[in-house]
Amino acid sequence: MIKQLMKNKMAILSFGIIALISILGIFAPVFAPNDPYESNIIKKFAAFSYEYPLGTDHLGRCILSRMIYGIRPTLFLSLLTMLGTIGLGAIMGLLAGYFRGIVDEIIMRIVDVMLSFPSQIMILAVVALLGVDIRNVIIANIFIKWAWYARMIRTSVLKYRDKNFILFSRSIGSSESFILIKHMLPCIGSEMAILATLDIGWAILNISTLSFLGLGVQAPVSEWGAMLNEAKNVMTTNPYQMLVPGIAVVILVASFNLLGDCIRDALDPKEAN
Amino acid sequence: MKNYIIKRCLIAIPLLMCISFFCFVFINLIPSDPAEVALRVRQTPIITEEAISQIRVELGLNDPFLIRYARWLGDCLRFDFGVSYVNPARTVLGEIGRCLPATIQLAGFSLIFVIILSLPIGFFCAIYKDSLFDRIVRSVVFMTTAMPAYWIGLLLMWLISIKLDLLPTSGNGTIKHLILPAFTISLTYISTYIRLIRNNILDNMKEDYVLYEKARGLKERTILINHVLKNSLHTCIVAIGMSIPQLIAGTIVVENVFAWPGVGKLCIAAIFNRDYPIIQAYVLMIGTLFVVFNLIFDIIQYITDPRLRRDVN
Fold first, then answer.
1. Residue A66 maps to which CATH number?
2. For the segment A229-260, what is each residue's pLDDT rounded down to a tens digit?
């Protein structure tokens, strides 16, 4: 699969962009030219300069530094969201698919109900209930999205459940948890990885939208959606301030979408046509 | 057919019950004590333990959970959602009723945009597959799926309202105020439906009946318009119809960008003010709309598509 991916220029390009952005985010203090929280009212709305490569915002903070520090919440919180979603979905899907019977019935009925709810509204409801905070946004996202993964993972577990190697393992007396962890998990691991890449774009958009509305990351922490919210207020005088975070979101989300598509094509060439 | 409709309606009832139950649990999980809130709403000057226990009996808060749920459900069916915590002079129904027309107007206008833009563009993309037009549309569609809706709104606002000064930036009133927010909302759906319609028409073009009609010597145009388009329209109309509640729910972000006085803006304000009855009523309303619209369009699809009817029977 990786060999096939290497042949695809799009996959390499999008992976490169994601890797570059991640490195910038991890080593933010090294790359950022200024302190992202240091405000300097005298220098507000400064134009592009050597000191402030992308100018400054309404409090005189360096926009480039804020962008680089903003990678951390934007990218890493969406990764965290996906990990949580996949984790919970995998546990539920494994239990439902492997044990069948009453466990399966209960979990799948819950999943059905969860899937029939409108997701955006549910996220708002959960955030409203728990209070406005980024941690609650992530909990809400996980709470809403796990059902979808549980269903997908259950389907793939059913595919492997009656394969000979599992039956063999059971007949020589392996414990159920051993079979689940040592045999089942590696089998569905690759599928889980694809599902995750396809949806990171969704998580990024979601978190930045909620931050834009003021429900997610709170000031003064820099996050791309929250930066756009600040830029909105000075749109008439400093329109370029809203271009940078917006373009960054588009590039990052587009890269994840492209990479997801490429991985899917590499795994399943039939789908591609 | 009658059986199918009855069965479908019966399935919807437990779903509605689940949604209402969720909303009821929601208001029971909030950190503030409903008895205390009720006292504040009545503007009792001093809140004592005695007054709280008295009002608990009065409101029936000591009753078992399920009895309270049944009573609450009865109130909801009579459209009595209580009063706003922040401004007790206003009922929740009144607040939502005040804001709902603006949201419906906005969602309706977006729906018109979705239909008049995505149908023809999707159709031409399918006919002229892999042409320059198709490739441009496909890349635009790809880009819009990666763009946050609020950013598109801001860009449009800046370009059209501030730079070109063609349309007002925010507020509502005239049709001019509607165009930008409605277009912003519809953009996401337009890209989804262009893809859906394009793929649907391409699938239909591979069907045997098209080959047969070609063999019969019908004109390409007649086949495309009278047969292929007619067959694909079907799925698309149902898909678009089912997305109407999503359009209504999706107005939240755009209403906040364009300061549109609809229920989405009301809901966000309620979240910040911890005005739980309004959030509860909003969630209940959107949830019910989802179930009802799914039900209606499922039945419409069943009635209009003879193939489906045969399968079910």
1. 1.10.3720.10
2. 888 777 777 777 788 888 888 999 999 888 88
* Structure token pair of residue B248: 């209504």
Along chain B (313 residues), what's the average pLDDT of each consecutive run of 10 residues?
82 84 79 71 71 75 80 84 75 86 89 89 86 88 86 86 74 76 87 87 84 83 81 81 83 85 87 82 87 86 74 55
Tokens representing A158? 């059913």
pLDDT digits (tens, 9 = 90+) for A36-75: 777 676 666 666 776 667 777 777 777 788 888 888 888 8
For residue A258, give both structure tokens. 């492209």
ipTM above 0.85, yes or no: no
* B147 to A209: CB separation less than 8 angstroms, yes or no: no
Say what the pLDDT of residue B171 is. Answer: 67
Verify whether the Cβ–Cβ distance A129 to B30 is below 8 Å: yes
Nearest to A257 by CA among B159, B141, B111: B141
Domain housing A62 = 2-272
Which tokens sit at A151?
A: 């269903």
Q: Please give the tally of structural domains in chain A.
A: 1
* A225/A126 Cα distance (integer angstroms): 20
Closest by Cα among B271, B133, B197 to A210: B271
Neighbour-count burial of B60, counting CB atoms closer than 10 A to its CB (0-12 exposed, 13-18 middle, 19+ buried): exposed
Q: Which of B26, B162, B245 comes nearest A125 by C-beta?
A: B26
Cα–Cα dist A97/B147, whole Å: 36
Angle CA(B289)–CA(B295)–CA(B298) in degrees, nearest 5?
A: 135
SS (H, E, C) chain B: CHHHHHHHHHHHHHHHHHHHHHHHHHHHHCCCCHHHHHHHHCCCCCCCHHHHHHHHHHCCCCCCHHHHHHHHHHHHHCCCCCECCCCCCCEHHHHHHHHHHHHHHHHHHHHHHHHHHHHHHHHHHHHCCCCHHHHHHHHHHHHHHHCCHHHHHHHHHHHHHHHCCCCCCCCCCCHHHHHHHHHHHHHHHHHHHHHHHHHHHHHHHCCHHHHHHHHHCCCHHHHHHHHHHHHHHHHHHHHHHHCHHHHHHHHHHHHHHCCCCCHHHHHHHHHHHCCHHHHHHHHHHHHHHHHHHHHHHHHHHHHHCHHHHHHHC
- What are the tens digits of pLDDT across the range A103-139? 888 888 888 878 777 777 788 888 888 877 888 888 8
B283–A125 C-beta distance less than 8 A: yes
Cα separations in angstroms, B267 against A128, A142, B246, B264, B278: 10, 22, 16, 5, 7
- pLDDT of A34 higher than 80: no
When CB atoms are compared, the residue of B151, B256, B291 closest to A228 is B151
Return the percentage of chain A with pLDDT > 70, whole number: 90
User: What single DSSP character describes residue A180?
Assistant: I
For the entire predicted model, the pTM comes to 0.82
- Residues B193, B240: Cα–Cα separation, whole Å: 8
Q: Indicate which of A18, A109, A120, A124 best probes the interface with B, i.e. most B CBs within 10 Å of its own CB.
A: A124
Angstroms from A179 CA to nearest CA on chain B? 36
What's the burial of B302, exposed, middle or buried (CB within 10 Å: 0-12/13-18/19+)? Answer: middle
